[in-house]
Amino acid sequence: MAASYDAIVFDNDGVLTTPTDRDVLLEAIHDAFESVGVSNPSDEEIRTLLGPDRSSLRRVADRHGVDAAALWSARERAAIDAQRAEIEAGRKRVYEDVTALESLPVPTGIVSNNQHETIENILDNCALEPIEVWYGREPTIEGIDRKKPTPYYLELAIEDLGARNPLYVGDSRVDVVAADAAGIDAAFVRRDHRLEYDLADHEPRYEIDSLEALPELV
């Protein structure tokens, strides 16, 4: 039997919008290296900056004698600009079933590991209503520490929504772990890009294949 939720918070990429093409992000990271004077980053270093922690970022920066904060700022700026171009070109787009949000009787929000500005660009350019609160990652080293599975931004969104029993909807293990850390239920969306995805020992309260299932859960 479904619980009585008073808000629903969504991850973005792979849940509300299609994931950004990996090659687009890799090219953006290469451009970021060039912008701080590094013309020959290795493929491994470029891949590291897809999702570094603080220590791996510093190792890469130190290897090239650049400031870690400056490198990360350049990386985030390049990723924001590249994804905005994908959004405006219609290559990064909302899923058709986001229309289910319109019939939800509770307030909704977004908490994403993508940059906050990228989420704003999505909301400015895509038909995605209603969303009352949204948090993306700050484009800083502190933002790295605060991304999921840390529940930092999720807890901020829950507080802003004034929710006591929200549901978090995601498409990855880190979403389920973040929900658990925040003490709330999670729903896992098994879209096409997650058909073979293994949640391991992280069990969400629900597993769904479309956002159209959400009104019944509320």
Explain this structure to me?
With 218 residues, this protein is of the alpha/beta class. The chain has nine helices and six strands. The protein has helices at 22-35, 43-48, 54-64, 68-88, 116-125, 141-146, 152-161, 173-182, 214-217, and strands spanning 7-10, 108-115, 133-137, 166-170, 185-189, 206-208. The protein has a six-stranded parallel sheet with strand order 3-2-1-4-5-6. Strand 2 (108-115), helix 5 (116-125) and strand 3 form a beta-alpha-beta unit. Helix 1 (22-35) packs across helix 4 (68-88) and helix 4 packs parallel to helix 5. The relative contact order is 0.18.
In short:
The chain is α/β, with parallel strands linked by helices. Helix content is 42%, strand content 14%.
Count of individual beta strands: 6
Q: What is the radius of gyration computed over CA atoms, rounded to a whole number of angstroms? A: 18 Å
- In round numbers, the mean pLDDT is 96
Fraction in beta strands: 5-15%
Percentage of helical residues? 40-55%
Tally of helical segments: 9
What is the N-to-C order of secondary-structure elements (H for helix, E for strand)? Answer: EHHHHEHEHHEHEEH
Spatial ordering of strands, largest sheet: 3-2-1-4-5-6
- Distance from first to last alpha carbon: 10 Å
Taking pLDDT < 50 over at least 5 consecutive residues as the criterion, the unreliable ranges are: none
Biggest sheet, in brief? Answer: 6 strands, parallel
Shape: globular
Q: Tell me the structural class.
A: alpha/beta
